[in-house]
């Protein structure tokens, strides 16, 4: 029989690098910790880009299990499994190094059979240091260090399924669906050290040495959100080693005109991306945390998830299987190609596929994310992607490959021809340009390449729920601008069903310790939900109104925007119902028919209760007319005031000013020097990724069309600095 013991308690943590001997010597002085654990739960979320990146030790007196024959007896083999050790790990037992693993998001195992005595000490050196070979190294999120997922002792009979190849279960189940006959051919392959294994699917038992095949007539399909039906394959050896593996029978398809196909029908994938961290806990999540995240996803009504930018916990892939989410799974080959990291990309992809192969929710393997942001498209980069693509198809011929292309990447780049399907990360309307440039980009691509399958892998705008405006604009970090941005993108997406998948960036705010913007330190605030999961921003309810059709609901936007100066204010309602009625102070004010977004202009004179009602549900907010703006609603009050001052002031058009475009300012050597210093400082506020990509030619071309004042406001420059900069520019005559 197979026995699993979770090694949760009894660990000592030492936040210093040292020898194994010293780790054991000073273990008693270390911090007592329970797993899962990360050493960056606090400093990786507080900003400054100064969180601890180095080597630490976890020490456990494993000899206490040596007397248990079920764990270390003569008739069993024992392995230790690490579900996640970030980013590299060295496993020591009694001063012998048993394993070295590079990659912080995949599982690996070490055999302990015959090696443990009653005095044995297990010590793991875990290291998240900066290096030039293990991904990720440049990315807009915190690289937490630690044993942040479960560590398990696994005991099996002498004859057992393979536990040492790429962290897999040793069993792969491959269903192939025939939609015409409504049947599925199922192949069960196994790797083991016995003469034969036995497999049972749907009540039928067969045995073989390497693989068995079944046919399931009248197959019950895994059908996304509508019916995520799962079969169970039971496999066993005569020795008693046994596994149960859930799988789903489904057929995925991709079409340049119809988009994504599920079981032969059009099934547009519309959803969000997710990072695996939580405020105050880092990435050391419990199964309860994963389940809570899934409940929020279910409320939203998304039918797809991009699990970015690395392999996620097996428990979360299980939840996706159970709830019918179609998943994009990827490795952390991101932002900047490293010449010494090629083998690591292949290793991480091999482990991702080997460990996640049986999950029916996974539709595509992601090769990389924004890899050309800080790297040139050269033969080395292309060859790395070709090798990854070939590996994916060799290990898994049943699934397609994809990649997330950075918005600066030209659409005729040869790298787009490597994966089976593509997707772009576009931030027009937030970082650069205007929102409608997104519409133009996709329309131009679809017209130029009508046979290429394209998706929308990232889009978003930061919002701090404390900030509000009746005239929201790019860069103000208001909840209202984020909502406007997503209203535009939702409409754009709905008009283009040929986009195979779209993923909001991001479902939750997440840690990016290098960031310092929008009133918060160390956070990317593009989430539809706050980092602690306690507050759903208005934009969350926009997508709920568009995607969740299971039960009627209505949401009044602006519940945190109470104080308003205007005599007539906009009241916005999101609902999945076709008609909404608005009540002001208990009296019906107006009703409207439409889809998803309903807008009303309401006169206000004092404090008013606003209520929206629709089929069986309602929502209520309070608004109050005030004479002066509430300063706490403004991210950068000084910048807002100086922007208004520039609107009123007249600059001498014969001289440069902050109202000129970046391109115009860079055309003059004097103004170019001033601007470059300012741009460097602005990039630093968005972390090391922004600093790395700032010299990308395509990005600079886009920025050249933007006015300097708009960039300054979004970057959080203070009013006096902007005025002083304008005075300097007004002293430089245009030629």
CATH superfamily of the largest domain: Glycosidases
In DSSP terms, counting alpha (H) and pi (I) runs of 4 or more, how many helices? Answer: 16
Q: Could you tell me the radius of gyration in angstroms? A: 28 Å
CATH fold type of the largest domain: TIM Barrel
* Helix percent band: 10-25%
What composes the largest sheet?
A: 8 strands, parallel
List segments where confidence is low: pLDDT < 50 over at least 5 consecutive residues.
none
Task: Going across the biggest sheet, name each strand in turn.
Answer: 31-30-29-28-27-26-25-32
- The multimeric state of the shown protein is single chain
Structural class: alpha+beta
CATH class of the largest domain: Alpha Beta
N-to-C span: 84 Å
Report on the architecture of this protein.
This protein is an alpha+beta fold and 735 residues long. It folds into five domains: 3-157, Sandwich (Jelly Rolls); 171-252, Immunoglobulins (Immunoglobulin-like, Sandwich), CATH 2.60.40.10; 269-548, TIM Barrel (Alpha-Beta Barrel), CATH 3.20.20; 563-625, Immunoglobulins (Immunoglobulin-like), CATH 2.60.40.10; 637-729, no CATH class. The strands form eleven sheets. The chain has an eight-stranded parallel beta sheet with strand order 31-30-29-28-27-26-25-32. Strands 3-2-4-10-7-8 form a six-stranded antiparallel beta sheet. A five-stranded mixed beta sheet has the order 36-42-41-38-39, with no helix packed on it. It is globular, with a radius of gyration of 28 Å. It starts with a strand and ends in a 6-residue tail after the last helix.
């Amino acid at each position: 029989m197979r026995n699993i013991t979770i090694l949760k308690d009894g660990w000592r943590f030492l936040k210093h690098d040292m020898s194994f001997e010293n780790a054991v010597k000073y273990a008693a002085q270390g911090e007592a910790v329970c797993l899962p654990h990360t050493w960056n739960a606090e400093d990786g979320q507080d900003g400054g880009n100064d969180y601890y990146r180095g080597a630490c030790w976890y020490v456990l007196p494993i000899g206490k299990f040596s007397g248990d024959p079920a764990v270390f007896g003569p008739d069993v083999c024992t392995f230790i499994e690490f579900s996640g050790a970030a980013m590299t790990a060295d496993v020591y037992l009694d001063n012998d190094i048993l394993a070295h693993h590079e990659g912080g998001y995949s599982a690996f195992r070490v055999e302990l059979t015959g090696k443990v005595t009653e005095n044995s000490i297990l010590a793991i050196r875990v290291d998240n240091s900066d290096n030039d070979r293990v991904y990720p190294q440049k990315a807009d999120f915190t690289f937490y260090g630690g044993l942040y997922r479960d560590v398990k002792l696994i005991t099996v009979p002498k004859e057992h399924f393979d536990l040492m190849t790429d962290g897999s279960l040793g069993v792969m189940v491959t269903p192939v669906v025939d939609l015409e006959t409504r049947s599925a051919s199922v192949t069960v392959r196994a790797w083991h050290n016995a003469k034969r294994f036995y497999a049972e699917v749907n009540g039928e038992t067969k045995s073989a040495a390497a693989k068995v095949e079944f046919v399931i007539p009248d197959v019950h399909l895994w059908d996304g959100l509508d019916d995520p039906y799962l079969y169970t394959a039971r496999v066993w050896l005569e020795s008693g080693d046994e596994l149960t593996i859930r799988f789903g029978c489904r057929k995925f398809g991709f079409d340049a005109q119809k988009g994504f196909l599920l079981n032969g029908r059009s099934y547009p994938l519309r959803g969000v991306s997710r990072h695996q961290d939580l405020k105050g806990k880092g990435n050391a999540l419990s199964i309860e945390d994963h389940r809570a995240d899934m409940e929020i996803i279910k409320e939203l009504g998304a039918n797809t998830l991009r699990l970015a930018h690395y392999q996620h916990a097996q428990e979360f892939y299980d939840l996706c299987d159970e709830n019918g989410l179609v998943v994009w799974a990827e490795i952390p080959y991101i932002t900047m190609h490293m010449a010494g990291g090629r083998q690591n990309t292949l290793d991480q992809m091999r482990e991702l596929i080997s460990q996640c192969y049986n999950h029916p929710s996974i539709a595509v393997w992601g090769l990389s994310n924004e890899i050309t942001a800080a790297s040139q498209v050269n033969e080395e980069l292309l060859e790395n992607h070709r090798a990854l693509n070939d590996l994916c198809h060799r290990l898994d011929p049943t699934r397609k490959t994809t990649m997330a292309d950075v918005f600066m990447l030209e659409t005729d780049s040869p790298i787009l021809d490597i994966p089976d399907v593509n997707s772009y990360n576009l931030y027009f309307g937030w970082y650069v340009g205007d929102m409608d440039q997104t519409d133009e980009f996709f329309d131009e691509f679809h017209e130029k390449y009508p046979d290429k399958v394209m998706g929308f892998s990232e889009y978003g705008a930061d919002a701090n729920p404390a900030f509000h405006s009746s005239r929201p604009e790019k860069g103000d970090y208001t909840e209202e601008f984020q909502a406007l941005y997503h209203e535009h993108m939702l409409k754009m997406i709905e008009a283009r069903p040929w986009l195979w998948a779209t993923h909001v960036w991001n479902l939750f705010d997440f840690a990016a310790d290098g960031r310092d913007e929008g009133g918060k330190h160390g956070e990317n605030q593009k989430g539809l939900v706050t980092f602690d999961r306690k507050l759903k921003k208005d934009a969350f309810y926009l997508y709920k109104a568009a995607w969740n059709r299971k039960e009627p609901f209505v949401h009044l936007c602006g519940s945190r925007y109470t104080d308003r100066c205007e005599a007539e204010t906009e009241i916005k309602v999101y609902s999945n119902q076709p008609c909404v009625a608005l009540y002001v102070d208990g009296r019906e004010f107006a009703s409207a028919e439409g889809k998803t977004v309903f807008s009303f202009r309401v006169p206000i004179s004092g404090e008013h209760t606003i209520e929206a009602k629709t089929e069986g549900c309602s929502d209520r907010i309070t608004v109050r007319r005030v004479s002066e703006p509430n300063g706490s609603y403004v991210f950068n009050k000084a910048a807002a005031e100086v922007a208004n001052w520039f609107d009123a002031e007249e600059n001498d058009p014969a001289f440069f000013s902050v109202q000129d475009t970046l391109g115009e300012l860079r055309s003059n050597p004097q103004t170019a020097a001033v601007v470059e210093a300012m741009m460097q400082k602005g990039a630093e506020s968005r972390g090391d990724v922004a600093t790395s990509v700032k010299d990308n030619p395509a990005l600079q071309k886009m920025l050249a069309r933007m006015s300097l004042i708009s960039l300054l406001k979004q970057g959080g420059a203070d009013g006096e600095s902007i005025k002083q900069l304008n005075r300097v520019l007004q002293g430089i005559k245009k030629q």
